[in-house]
Specification:
The protein is of the alpha/beta class. It has a 4-stranded parallel sheet, with helices on both faces. Helix 3 links the parallel strand 1 and strand 2. Helix 2 crosses helix 3.
């Protein structure tokens, strides 16, 4: 919810930050329904596709005939769906993850390079050591919800498990406080359940997509990404930065967003 605060100035007014004024962007930075200042959702169905439709409607009501989309983490799941549901208005989608994984067919692994195998090992390690929160939220979110809604210390610990090693403590506290004051621990957890239990489109996306992949985050394999997205036009991999690149590699992320959207001027 506070992820993009430090990016607002350089992206909206690059001249003031030593950049090219032609790169200036209008910014809409919504919270996902059910997260933070968007408030708790009170009904089922708020998965990626419904959120994508809501964001497309938001852009329309704000008067944008054409617009681009960027997303990280859950936003990187939703953003390609915005392009899918609103192809007449979305000019391009920029993400920091592409969630394209092996299907289980052994033939998919034939001819993979050592570098690609290392990327798969990183993903396996992440799933084994860091994904307990996602598994719980995707299967039994309400079991967790009561505990988080009852304990600010529990909310802080839950947020801290993902953020504490990579971002400033004030950012961790601000995130935990926002969830606590808006009472969105439960509804944000349910997003994972909705994503797990939603019908997902099987056809590849066709909107131009760009990826900025950072060193201490998983990097998708191009083979699998192109299986799910037919129009990847931009792909950069960086030697620093993490899953929270807006905090620990903002210069790289800003430059990559500007480079991607420059082609659509």
């Amino acid at each position: 919810m506070v992820e993009y605060l430090d990016l607002i100035g350089p992206l909206s007014d690059p001249r003031a930050h030593g950049g090219d004024p032609a790169d200036a962007l209008h910014l809409i930075i919504p919270s996902i329904p059910g997260f933070g200042f968007s408030g708790p959702t009170a009904e089922r169905g708020w998965g990626p596709t419904r959120v994508a439709r809501a964001w497309a409607e938001l852009a329309s009501r704000l008067g944008y005939e054409h617009y681009g989309v960027h997303g990280n983490d859950a936003g990187a799941i939703i953003s390609p769906e915005v392009g899918r549901v609103d192809p007449d208005h979305v000019i391009g989608v920029h993400v920091t993850q592409i969630f394209s994984f092996p299907s289980g067919d052994p033939a998919e692994f034939e001819g993979l390079s050592p570098d690609d195998m290392a990327k798969l090992q990183f993903l396996h390690t992440f799933n084994e050591e860091m994904s307990a929160y996602a598994q719980l939220q995707a299967t039994k979110p309400q079991n967790l919800a009561h505990a988080l809604a009852d304990s600010p210390a529990g909310q802080l610990a839950w947020i801290g498990q993902l953020l504490a090693d990579t971002v400033d403590p004030d950012v961790v506290l601000t995130n935990a406080t926002t969830y606590w004051l808006t009472n969105t621990a439960a509804s944000s957890a349910r997003f994972y359940y909705e994503d797990r239990h939603s019908d997902h489109a099987t056809e590849p996306t066709t909107i131009p997509i760009g990826l900025a992949a950072f060193a201490y985050d998983f990097t998708p394999l191009r083979r699998f990404a192109e299986r799910d997205h037919s129009n990847i036009v931009h792909w950069n991999e960086y030697d620093r930065g993490s899953h929270w690149s807006a905090h620990d590699a903002p210069d790289l992320l800003i430059a990559d967003i500007q480079e991607f959207f420059r082609r659509f001027r």
